[in-house]
UniProtKB/TrEMBL annotation:
<keyword id="KW-0809">Transit peptide</keyword>
<dbReference type="Pfam" id="PF00436">
    <property type="entry name" value="SSB"/>
</dbReference>
<keyword id="KW-0238">DNA-binding</keyword>
<dbReference type="InterPro" id="IPR011344">
    <property type="entry name" value="ssDNA-bd"/>
</dbReference>
<keyword id="KW-1135">Mitochondrion nucleoid</keyword>
<keyword id="KW-0235">DNA replication</keyword>
<dbReference type="InterPro" id="IPR012340">
    <property type="entry name" value="NA-bd_OB-fold"/>
</dbReference>
<dbReference type="GO" id="GO:0042645">
    <property type="term" value="C:mitochondrial nucleoid"/>
</dbReference>
<dbReference type="GO" id="GO:0003697">
    <property type="term" value="F:single-stranded DNA binding"/>
</dbReference>
<dbReference type="InterPro" id="IPR000424">
    <property type="entry name" value="Primosome_PriB/ssb"/>
</dbReference>
<dbReference type="GO" id="GO:0006264">
    <property type="term" value="P:mitochondrial DNA replication"/>
</dbReference>
<protein>
    <recommendedName>
        <fullName>Single-stranded DNA-binding protein</fullName>
    </recommendedName>
</protein>
<keyword id="KW-0496">Mitochondrion</keyword>
């Protein structure tokens, strides 16, 4: 019976090491806020502050003197659940603010008004760094 017991223990410990295996879901975004944040509260849940953030990529297409500069803007949805930060974000994040957001990617599902299931990708922020006080007037 002793040998079987040792196998069970060994199996259990490898099982736990799989669960505790390190993984990373980390996002950093540096950009400008698209519109003033909104605070939403779904019944029975904590409130959440939501805003959009734009990041820009630039690259040269073509070669030599005929090359063009192309630009792509990507809009990100940022959700702040963390108490304290949620209120700071709601109060101080403004349209046009240049901020750094750190957090994790989340792929949630929701049902829209036509009862269609949709995927909502959002960055769940746990840190926001304010980099400017609207240097450029973006009204």
């Amino acid at each position: 019976g002793f040998r079987i017991f040792r196998q069970v223990v060994r199996y259990r410990s490898t099982d736990t090491s799989l669960i505790l295996e390190r993984s990373i879901n980390r996002v950093q975004l540096l950009g400008r806020v698209g519109q003033d944040p909104v605070m939403r509260q779904v019944e029975g849940r904590n409130p959440v502050t939501i805003f959009s953030l734009a990041t820009n990529e630039m690259w040269r297409s073509g070669d030599g003197e005929m090359s063009d500069i192309s630009q792509k803007t990507t809009w990100h949805r940022v959700s702040v659940f963390k108490p304290g930060l949620r209120d700071v974000a709601y109060q101080y994040v403004k349209k046009g603010s240049r901020i750094l957001v750190e957090g994790k990617l989340d792929y949630g599902e929701y049902v829209d008004k036509n009862q269609v299931r949709r995927q909502a990708t959002t960055i769940i922020a746990d840190n926001i760094v304010f980099l400017s006080d609207n240097i450029r007037d973006r009204t």
